[in-house]
Amino acid sequence: DEPKLRVYAEAEEGTEISLQFGFMEPTQTYRYALLNGETLFLVEDNQYFELNRTLLDLRNRFTVDDREADILRFEFTRVWTGREGVEMDNPPEVGEESVNIVLERDSAEAPWRMLAPADAAANQEVVDELVAEIQFAVGRNFVDNPESLADYGFEPASVRITLADDAEGREQRLYFGNLDRTTEQGGIYVMKEGQDAIFQVDAHVATLFPRSPYAFRERRLLSRQASELERIEVRGHGADFTLALEEGAGWRVVSPQLSDVSSTALSTFVAQLKSLSAMSFPEGLPEEYGLDQPDAWVDLTFEDGETAQLLFKWHEEAPDYYFATQDSGDVVRMEAAVLDRILVDPNHFRSRDLMRFSRLDAVMMNFTFEERDYVLERVHGSWLVRQPANRALDNQSDADRLINALSPLRATAIESTEAGDPADYGFDAPLFTFQVLVQPEGDPDQAQMVGPLTVGAITVDNDMERYATMEGREGVFRVSQELITQIRDILRGIDTTSVMP
User: Is 256 strand, coil or helix?
Assistant: First the structure.
């Protein structure tokens, strides 16, 4: 007499069906049901549950017709609403559309490409994020047959999105209401073309909308993932080297041959190559900017065997800029300072670590400072001054300070790959030489001498640096003058503290 649910249906041949559901029967297993007001029977309660659905349960709450289909075409258009709060002399007519941004791809695995407002490579990550947000957004708080669209920001709408998928391929259009007015539930209103309802989606989607017609354009010179690179060859402007990724060993400099390469410097270089970005997009073909005769270039080989090339040409009228090509072949303009991180001398990859040893295993330090010889030896955990004679450490921490100043010791720069004339660097009469005997775990059979490190004259162009060499390392380096200042302060205690002979 007071059914919990009424269901009416009509079969294909025209037969009408009326179902009413009442109480649960005493065992609370089945529910009473009445067919066409005549036949009383029992049904399992889960069958009643399947029919007892709200309109929200039954409607398609997604922004697209088929969220399992891959979107292959995506268009974004802003509309002038008059709500922008921007003062201008001749504002557009309300409802006038701005530049239409069109993106397309051949398949879900193919990259996106911008077709309008320019034919150019698209930023895959940025486009994928917005397309996925649209494809998988779930509507809520539906308003059917709204009396006034203006109440929800649709007169006019702020944004129109047109898309097509690989299922039916037909166009679907979405309209977004006032983007500046977020609901209490943190949503913005959306309307699908062909439906008499509006609904809310998470307002986060609006943060992904492009702010300019070229916001979706790929600005990076290298659009593929850096992890897909296998070989990098750089030539021009003093750069002439080849890097290769070796399985299990990481990046290596294969040309020229370098024995003391820094893995950190290599990883940083690859990251900087990936981050190279354009600042603007001049129109025209590469040869119009001299890129058919580049000043420098980068040849790239990927793990799948594909290759690409980045070309660079100095901007004659603006020396702070370069013209370049992306891996897609499009012409861009970029800052020279950014490119300087890529067109480096091969020595850029050499390790700056000049001296490094286990401080706990150091048992003897033999060094010369300002033509005076010093020998310090660790005996039973304490440092003794063996030379100069009749001298002692003012404080044991002075020896620790000396060790800490020299391990690790990093060069500030690489001056030359060759030793050259010692007199040119002050190595014929060095200010400081140092070597240390380390004995791991106190085992004399494992003892080894580290050094000597030689520090010479102040560099010709910077009085805060000195020339230095290290046994086992090729070339001449620069070290900070701060090292000499520290050593001079440490040795002051030895030079002024004497013991009885």
Answer: coil
